[in-house]
């Protein structure tokens, strides 16, 4: 069965791609996060998941910490982080950082490390 999920179900604001959805409720083994970080800095603190996570950089420039690596990303790039690997990211500016994050699990499982 196909599902259409309306924006008001997952979006935090009607004017930005920002929000999240656990897709397991719809029969998918994935979760989605749409991040919109307007200012320099911000972003999630260090954490890890027991599954892979795919980051699609939609706009801006981000600095990702992945294990012991620091990786600068820009719009159009895709970053894949393996399971059980600590990660965090922040907006380097000058404009907003927008990402679409795909979690390879039907519900979020997060271990916060800081």
Output the strand order for the largest sheet: 1-2-9-4-7
Tell me roughly what share of residues is in helical segments. under 10%
CA-CA gap between termini = 40 Å
Look at the structure and give the mean pLDDT: 96
Uncertain stretches? none
H/E topology pattern: HEEEEEEEEEE
Instruction: Compute the number of strand runs.
Output: 10
Beta fraction: 35-45%
Radius of gyration: 14 Å
Structural class: mainly beta
The major beta sheet can be summarized as: 5 strands, antiparallel
How many DSSP H or I helices? 1
Shape label: globular
What would the keywords be for this entry?
114 residues; mainly beta; 5-stranded antiparallel beta sheet; 3-stranded antiparallel beta sheet; 1 helix; 4% helix; 44% strand
What does this structure look like?
- The structure is a single chain.
- This protein has one helix at about 5-10; strands spanning about 20, 30-35, 45-50, 55-60, 60-65, 70-75, 80, 85-90, 95-105, 110.
- It has a 5-stranded antiparallel β-sheet with strand order 1-2-9-4-7, with no helix packed on it.
- The protein starts with 6 loop residues before the first helix and ends with a strand.
- The model has no long low-confidence stretch (mean pLDDT about 95).
- The protein is mostly beta strands.
- The chain is about 5% helix and about 45% strand.
- About 20% of the residues are buried.
- The chain is globular, with a radius of gyration of 14 Å.
